[in-house]
Specification:
The protein is an all-beta fold. The chain has one domain. It contains no helices and five strands. Strands 1, 2, 3, 4 and 5 form a five-stranded antiparallel β-sheet that branches. The two termini are about 15 Å apart. The model has no long low-confidence stretch (mean pLDDT about 80).
């Protein structure tokens, strides 16, 4: 088996955000929905003849605000969802 070259590194995905706005108007009510989606990813690794090591961290977050107005009544609903993921592998 050949020799592996030394390999060290870090990959970090830039912070990304998606925003959306939805407005619906009917005769008696109005609804507005605003959502944000955020994603991040970070990877640290070491690969050589004696070690394979990987650290991975990833997170996705979605937040949503829904506002409804009907006949003078106003309601707001806030929801947040979070999906974290972390993994560490190391093989001598």
């Amino acid at each position: 088996m050949g020799t592996l070259p030394e390999c060290y590194g870090q990959i970090v995905a830039p912070f990304q955000a998606l925003k959306g706005l939805y407005i619906r108007r009917m005769a008696a009510w109005e609804t507005e929905v605003e959502q944000d989606i955020h994603f991040s990813n970070s990877q640290d690794y070491i690969i050589n003849n004696s070690l394979f090591s990987l650290k991975l961290a990833q997170n996705t977050t979605i937040s949503s605000v829904t506002e409804t107005e009907s006949h003078g009544d106003h309601a707001t609903e806030v929801q947040k969802f979070d999906w974290p993921f972390a993994l560490t592998l190391s093989f001598p």
